[in-house]
Amino acid sequence: MKLKRLISICMAAVSSIVLAGCVQQTPPPVNDGEHQTTGEYNQVTFYDKLFGNRREYTEGEFMNPANEYRMLPVLNEDASKPKGASIPNLEKLQDYGYGGVVTNVAWSQDYLENDYAWELLEEAVAYAIEDLGLRVWLYDEYAYPSGGARDHVLKDNPQWQAQGVAQKSVVVQRGETKNIACPQEHTLLAAYAYQGTSLTDISADGAAECDVSADGTASFTNNTGEDCIMVCLYSKNWYEGTHPQWNLMESRRYIDVMRSEPVEKFLNVTYETYKEHLGQYFNNGIESFFYDEPALAGMYKESCSVQNVLDKPNTALELLDTYNYSPVLSEYFREKWGYDPAPYLPYLYKDGSAVNQSEAAMRFRMQWNDCIAELFATNYFKQIGDWCAENNINASGHLLGEESPAACVLYSGNIMRNYANVQIPGIDLLSGDPAVTASWSNVMKACSSSAQFYGKSRVFCEISDWGYQNENWDARIASVAVQYACGVNTFVSYYEPFNYDRDTNRYLADTTARIGYMLGGGIGQKDVAVYYPAEGFYAASTNADTNNFSNNSLVSSVSDHFRDLGYSLLKNQIDYENFDAQMVREAKIESGALVTPAGERFSVLVVPKTYAMYYDVLEKLYEAAENGVRILLQDNGGWICESAEKQDDFESLFAKLVQHKNVTVKTSNAQTVSELKPYVYVQADSEDIVACKQVNENNSVYLVCNTAASKRNITLRLSDEGKTFKLWDPYDGSVEVITPDSSGNGWSEFRLALDQYKCAVITAE
Q1: How far apart are CA 377 and CA 413, in angstroms?
Q2: What residues are paired with 690 via a beta bridge?
Q3: Fewest beta carbons less than 10 Å away: which of 328, 424, 485, 697?
Q4: pLDDT tens digit string along 93-113?
Q5: Domain identity same for 512 and 549
Q6: Is pTM, for the whole model, over 0.90?
Q7: Average of per-residue pLDDT across 502-519
């Protein structure tokens, strides 16, 4: 999904631009006479102020929103250009209506060590902040994925490279002896023989250790009287065939993101060096670092045209079935779960597309992936988030494969835990088609829900139409509007501004900024929480086939159901937030609602189809039901918990939960949507309309967006009555008072026509 960078870097005559946004302080005023800063961004940050937020909207500020509501573009520095060469482009960005710039030290062969490159960056940043009043973000890597500082981290520490655990297996019939030689560039971890002839029917409890020679060859003589399967398990440096090789920018080896040491080194050589050169601007114009697609090596990827090859891959290397692994992972697993994982590792692999679905296999995968998620969240994201907090700056960026919850397990562990550890959690959504964007509500909602739960004011997205192209600028703007409706409010745009004239840029920048100005405060009015079943994905996830995200119907069915649930809620105007296990644990239960640390209240919790749940989370669900929270289960059970010793108690408690008066089982998304209709606060008689309501102390704000390629004449019902309603047009900045066609019982009804891909904002004051 990085063709945008390949194109931008190849345009030698045009500086590459990335549009992004964030604010933690009041930016300096813009002096172009067209849009002035208007004061501190009014989105609340502290929990005790969440419901005391006031917004006073003015037509002047709406027409020319402040920089804090505007997209930012990236000026990728070039160490071959003369000083001052960035100045005209920065001035043009400001004139085009953008709010700032994402930039970085030049990607030279002596990356991070080129004094002239640092001088160019210092000049550009100083001019952007001091002369133009632009906001600045710092891109933290040579191309992507973030974490290696190109080759600086691994250069003297090859032991920190990302690893996988691979397997080779062979059936050994009764009376036979079979050998498996250790493949090139692999290290044998263990070899076991299991009764059975397929990975789908083995039991680790019956594992027998095989003989191993000095050269790593494993052998087994089958004297058991039953056919067996011998499985050899190997560690290897994970590079060939994976994301670090097959990204568009540069093939290079990548760090083990589950280890703390390489991430600490990355911070020392990258973030500390930026601080040395630009630290005086941290939180004084420079708002955030921007990480780009740090990831577990995860799975094999489809080949692509790579711009540069730093580390030559071994094209002759055998690509075995492989899963996420680290030496620290095995150690952590033993500490947390109290047993050696080695005999159970074959549970991580499919046999073709078939998966071992035994309770033991499901539980082991749940435990293994739980450890991966914790290590990645702690040793990568928490380290970076903590460094930024200590140095008065934010951490932001986005991850890899966010569109599919199934892929998230393999690339990110638990994305909601990763988001919780940084100041501005973020995503990318590469669609210029608003209907497609809406179908990815799961991506937007997971990110914005984590931010809202923990009281964070900004949610970031990198946008373009690289994945789903649409040349219609209204469609592109509507794709942004859909994200605003889902809680995203800070945008990096890869629509190359220097490829378009000033009017086109102003149309994009001004229109999206006006939407941001209107939604830049308050909280969404919603009562529905949707459980994010990470542990269900854990229990089902196995190795992925080359060029496939999953090829595992067990996990795909849960992943697809979860995605479809979010989309069904969104297109029926049912606003919601996601809660993962930790968020459920941290929420209070008060007066029939789950209450977040930020003070939001949810009277309904939907638990989608899953295979597993932590025992203490099930206990919390039962406590919630006992205290009046309404729970909709989309599954009749058959789940496992993390402990075999607790499984019987877990099943008994689940049976009690299902029978509880406040619990309803609705196995289809259509049934669930029907049950949740009373929790709608803005209604439209078309599923093409994406809408949301935000509540301030003194008014309400509604956003409605037509995601269809044709006009929609809709009946719109808003949950406000007896107010003054105003229609704010983000395209031309006009404002008019509108009168309901009818009202009553707390509702006001309007007949509204929305052209293709158009959106509107309505206030009730």
Answers
A1: 8
A2: 705
A3: 697
A4: 999 999 999 999 999 999 999
A5: no
A6: yes
A7: 97
